[in-house]
């Protein structure tokens, strides 16, 4: 769309809109068709991420019981599992769907109440609008 953007994290409606947290438009009857389409695309992207984490936990089940390691070690452990997963994929060691049987999707902790409007970043609306335009220009998918 002609403007360089940095990476953003995907959040749901409870997170504050920041230029680094992309969240959906508030669902109500005033949403335009393109805003609904944006929310749909954001929800689809979020489900892909959830599925990826579910598969990562199924392949490396140590991630299911990380309560016995220190918080300082956790990022390194997750990164190691990601690297090992990519190595397995590169060497045609495919994911076994049976591994999912012992893994349940877990709801990650998130805020219970929507963030106050004062926490929202006015510049972030420009980022969301730019992404909304981009999704609209991409067509269906």
UniProtKB/TrEMBL annotation:
Q: Name one Pfam family in it.
A: DDE_Tnp_4
Q: Name one GO cellular component term.
A: nucleus
Task: Name where it's found.
Answer: Nucleus
Q: Which GO terms describe its molecular function?
A: hydrolase activity; metal ion binding; nuclease activity
Give the domain of life. Eukaryota
Main localization, broad class: nucleus
Residues annotated as domain DDE Tnp4: 5-86
Q: Which keywords, in A-to-Z order, does the entry hold? A: Hydrolase, Metal-binding, Nuclease, Nucleus
Claim: Metal-binding is one of the keywords in the record: yes
Cofactor(s) it depends on: a divalent metal cation
Tell me the protein family, please. Answer: Belongs to the HARBI1 family.
Kindly give the PANTHER family that the UniProt entry links to this protein. PROTEIN ALP1-LIKE-RELATED, PTHR22930
What protein name does the entry list? Answer: ALP1 protein
Q: Which organism is it from?
A: Centropus unirufus
